[in-house]
Amino acid sequence: MTDSSVPDRRREIARLFGQALERPPEERDACLDRMCGGDSVLRREIEDLLKADADAGAAGFLGAPADLSALAPGAGDDGAAGSLDGRVFGPYTVVREIGRGGMGVVYEAEQTRPRRRVALKVILGGRHVDASAVRRFEREAESLARLKHPGIAAIYESGCTEAGQHFFAMELVPGRLLSDVLAGSGPAASRAEVRRRLALFRRIAAALTYAHQRGVIHRDLKPSNIFVLPGPADATAAPEIKVLDFGLARITDPDAEEATAFTALGSIQGTLPYMSPEQVRGRRDDVDVRTDVYALGVILYRMLAGRLPYDVAGVDLPEAARIICEEPPRPLAAAAGPRTKIDRDLAIIVFKALEKDPARRYATVAALDEDLGRYLAGQPILARPASAAYQLRKLVARHRVACAAIAAAIAGLVLVAIVTTVQARRIAAERDRAGREAKTASRVSDFLTGLFEVSNPDEGRGNSITAREILDAGVEKIGRDLAEEPEVQARLMQTMGKVYASLGLWPKAAATLEQSVAVRRRVLGEEHPDTLQAMADLARLYSSMGRRAEAEKLDDHVLAARRRDLGEEHPLTLEALAALAFVYRGQGRLPEAEKLDLRVYEARRRRLGEDHPDTLESMTELAAVYNYERRYAEAAALYEPAVEKLRRVLGEGNSVTLKNTVFLADVYASQKRFGEAEALHRDTRERLRRLLGDDHPLTIQATNNLASLYADQARWAEAEPLFKDALERKRRVLGEDHPSTLVGIENLAIVEASEGRLDEAGSMFLDLAEKRRRLLGENHPQTAVAWYCAACVDARRGRRARALELLGRAVEHGYADADNLTRDPDLESLRADPAWIPIVARARKNTAPGKP
């Protein structure tokens, strides 16, 4: 072999090795037989590389494709291709080599400060490496520096030694290569296995979505560039992943384009079986996020079928390129085998990701992930298969000569027949759907018309009809008239229950929502999405009513189902996590609530971005937990940017913005920042009065909170008229029994007691306790607080016997602040009574760990 032929020989070895590497291990012998023919030397060299790659993968790091250093320019210079054990690179001391690739050698190293194990990647070729290789190496470091995501290996530092060796340090990743996981797993043989693999794939998609949002396109996605971390304790949850090797990444910022282009016009970069047609053709301008979508489609195909969509092993490069660019992929079900559970919708999703024309592919990885979420949730997918006319055009394009003679004779007839058939089916489907929708709309219209006929004066015999009476009549009518239509009945029961809840009629709301859940369980089953949503609504109501154990049981069930069916980070799963956090907060389980709220906040921030309304909602929920924990500085640190972003994203006058502005002012008041709190309360109240009027619930709430601020400072003369104004409007707008009205009664009673008007205060607290007992139940914390306040007033009035009776009732039904009992000066006159000690003991027994 002449010297001039060595580079060609090396390139051929590298190409054939790459093809063999992508084959499952059990197929590699046959593949090598085809590729190498009788060249035993060539076969032995490739087998050595495959063994080196297997050894590197077993070491548990980056999945570098094997020792190709012998094929790289400058191999061995400065010891980059040799052992560097014990060598020091700045703060890093090399421990051992754990992998090699075409661009660099990867070592496990120890960093001195902070002390940790890292992966140290050193460029091959040392100081003699060519400039293009340095640019690619630096581009990988730059790409990783942009990305801070749990699904992407993090970079810590990059640099160059005095000897001229380029390196960067990054996260040391445990686990197995996805290629190794797939090599021993075969096709997905059950629906549960399909769901498990889809959950794993969606973690990969989430990491790529994040990278694309930060302007980084990977361009070399394949199973050997993805690590699967050790599985979680919960066997039903998908393991975490790490996407690696951004050596071919392209940064989409205009300023970075010059440094990240192809190294030569028409050159190919990537791993052939996972390259998109535009990459194979070397079309630089066509390479964008859809290129990664295609590679993910190949990975998804292999995860489901256990093999690749195209067989390009052993064929020369031009033929392989033609297959990728022109041939259709093998049908997914046929490739997977008859025992697999891959249905048509899932195949449609995979083949849309594998479309040869980028314009027909999913536009983003997020869109692919969304369709998989819809598939897992049993919802209609957004992807649509290519039309028959389109498939025929592609067939003709691939076989122009053979089809030219017959195209003129039959193309028109075939197209007409196909289009007519498709249109007929669409018309029939639309007609059926329209018929069902019209029937449903007519049924709902008839029901509502019948419901509101009771408001006719003739029907009502001259009496005025209240909204409560219409609701009661509606619920009775639903139960009587829709017994033969259980799904419609359950849907309307759910709607009526939510209306009852919005009016503060919680016991009636609970009974109605319980009926809706019971009907849906019977008709649709425990796990149906509609049943789960009805359970979630009922759990939210239970939590508001203080029935938190029942709420927790429902929320746990909903969360488990959504995790199983939709994945850990689906929007509905995150919604269920947030609901459970709200229950924990009400139970005083603040560390658990904080943990869940923080998880939801981080997930939404990662998937949706910092400024998405759902992310901001989670931010304020976490702030509320901090407020409950009296961590006011941390609560303010979240509320302040959240309110600022809400103003920018939703607008100054949005109800969510204004509501959280009020919460921020309340935190300021808790920090004794009364001047800032008052200014914010006054400004918010005036904005609400101008925008919504004095009788809008948000305006009334702002008036009430300003009065509370004055009360916190014992400015009773200023607080009293505002409390009275707010209470009058609540009674008129919301009703006498609305929860907010009851809070208004409590506030005004506190003012009366503070001003020494004890008879009025005592009557108001007793009336409040009775209302809460009737509406919320005897064991609701707010009911117990009302009895406690009435006891304090009676103690001040010298009515010790009744004060002790009311105090005993309060702790019997859940009052738990034993420390407050022993400190409250209003109860001083009761502490010598023999009944005092068992009351305090019962209160201490009620106290739960973590209670605020």
Could you walk me through the main structural features you see in this protein, from its secondary elements to its overall organization?
The chain is mainly alpha-helical and 852 residues long. Among the domains are: 3-171, Phosphorylase Kinase, domain 1, CATH 3.30.200; 176-386, Orthogonal Bundle (Transferase(Phosphotransferase), domain 1); 783-852. The protein contains 34 helices and eleven strands. The strands form three sheets. Strands 1-2-3-4-6-5 form a six-stranded antiparallel beta sheet. The protein has a three-stranded antiparallel beta sheet with strand order 7-9-10. The chain is elongated. The N terminus and C terminus are likely disordered.
Shape: elongated
**Biggest beta sheet attributes:** 6 strands, antiparallel
What is the CATH architecture assignment of the domain at 176-386? Orthogonal Bundle
Spatial extent as radius of gyration: 34 Å
